[in-house]
């Protein structure tokens, strides 16, 4: 129903307009009596076999909503009822900022992808903190994706990351350090060794002085070569960073069905969806093999089908996150993924018992 009737109607409007209408509509709808329970009963798969331990945190299932959807922490409670075990808010910056000029989000349906150059539009870390201080549903895991303001020069970026980190500490369950967004001028230079050394070192030092421990993960770009990935992994190990999120959007445009003329007309931006599936999978698999499975991984990028989700888990990810796949597949996508994971776990359990007998 979503694919053939609802999605074509939604796709008549721009992605950013639809996003605003949907989030506003969901907030209104969930205020109606009985809606929360109904949505939860339809879309949530509950089974102890789906429970996943990651970095000492217990997740109800492995599937989360990636950063960028709920930048300001406005709908995390509502969207948890669509079956997500965790929702990553942000990317958030110290000061609120409008982001890049519109239009800045574009669909490429022939490739089942999106191109965006949003530019970290958000209300700022204090506004996000205010929402996180409000009541949160029990069992929902919140990740805090942190970045720098657009006008903060790279040499002072560490101060922005520390600001967001200290402000949200104790209010999120884990942090993701986003140094890989292609939509902030020169930001990807923060993935270089010296910049990473400064940022991760500062955050590790701040955390060491805290009374409670909150995991930190590094989000990397799919456009890094293996040498650059190795450098990132060295920094992760050096500062005791807890894991890696792989990967972000890509600036590459090769292999697309969409015409060059249309892509050129869209212009710059990070591409997500099916065009990045194979590369995200490749990066996750490389990190898992390179570190002997010792680096905890969240796999994100190009999970457009149930098989994509299973492949990402097979490649070495413990958790996965969706965004573009959720947009293209609709609210039942998370349930289908979790049912497939559960089915495979139960089949594996039966096979193991059969062999033991």
Write the layout of secondary structure elements.
Blueprint: H1 2-10, H2 15-29, H3 35-43, E1 52-54, E2 57-59, E3 63-65, H4 76-80, E4 86-92, E5 105-108, E6 113-116, H5 125-132, E7 141-146, H6 157-168, E8 174-178, H7 193-208, E9 216-220, H8 226-238, E10 243-246, H9 260-266, E11 270-273, H10 277-290, E12 297-300, H11 306-315, E13 319-322, H12 324-329, H13 333-356
Parallel strand pairs: 3-4, 3-13, 4-7, 7-8, 8-9, 9-10, 10-12, 12-13
Antiparallel strand pairs: 1-2, 5-6, 6-11
Give the count of helical stretches.
13
Identify the CATH homologous superfamily. Answer: Aldolase class I
The averaged pLDDT comes out at: 95
Structural class: alpha/beta
Count of the separate structural domains: 1
CATH class call: Alpha Beta
- The H-and-E topology, N to C, reads as HHHEEEHEEEHEHEHEHEHEHEHEHH
CATH architecture: Alpha-Beta Barrel
C-alpha Rg, in Å? 20 Å
Helical residues, percent? 40-55%
State the separation between the terminal residues, measured CA to CA. 44 Å
| Unreliably modeled segments | none
State the total count of DSSP E strands.
13
Basic shape: globular
Strand content: 15-25%
Order of strands across the biggest sheet?
A: 3-4-7-8-9-10-12-13
